[in-house]
Design goal:
This protein is 43% helix and 11% strand. It is built from 13 helices and 5 strands. The chain has a 5-stranded antiparallel sheet. A hairpin with a 5-residue loop joins β1 and β2.
Length: 275
Amino acid sequence: MATALRAAPRSVLGVANAPAGKGGVGELLREWRQRRRLSQLDFSLQAGISSRHLSFVETGRSAPSRDMVLHLAEELRLPLRERNRLLLAAGYAPVFTESSLGSPQLAAVSEAVRQVLAGHEPYPAAVVDRWWNLVDGSAGLALLTEGLPAALLEPPVNVLRASLHPDGLAPRILNLGQWRGHLLARLRQQVEVTGDPRLADLLSELQEYPGEDGAGAEPAASLVVPLRIRHGDGELAFVSTVTTFGTPLDVTVAELVIESFFPADEATAKALRRG
């Protein structure tokens, strides 16, 4: 199933969808510092400022400069979307653009994605946004989506929901417990890093689906978690890699992820080459 690169709605990509905060920049900084499990003293030493100054910023007694906001955001390893949000809370204009995938500014990015997908044929590959919504995919992705109900393929297609829903790919996944545990662990980490309530809601939804995390684990000799699916009368096995853009300065580009699936054994490779 190949799809054209397209932009998600602004309601999806907008800053308004970032984690909710109660107050200004100081309160947001404290929230992120605590999320990173840093004390004021530890963070002030890490950022190279006095703990007194950091305390004044967090309590609103001192207004940080634009450069200070960006410096603290960098030290907190915040995603670009959250850095823009901090700047807005401090009264400054966002620094990082947020372009549509179909815009001229991202023409080179769109072409690079298409080349990656074309070069990966006949194997499955999916391009997803921050919320795991399908943005584009290789023709080989049809191997994983064939037979899924129309409700799960309604745009925007959420690949985690389509994978783990009991009416989705899940019944065909032979190592469902292990694969489910792997996906949920990745999502939990993403929720921790971003603080995104939409991702937290998605995690809660997926955790309600039937299945046990980590059940049916592969032998200890396995180096990666495979995806093993029933296909016709046989089985296909894949390992996956994740590709992101290096040093992005645009929110949309920073949040794009290309997940590419490769044959985990010669039998799968032969089956895919035969089409």
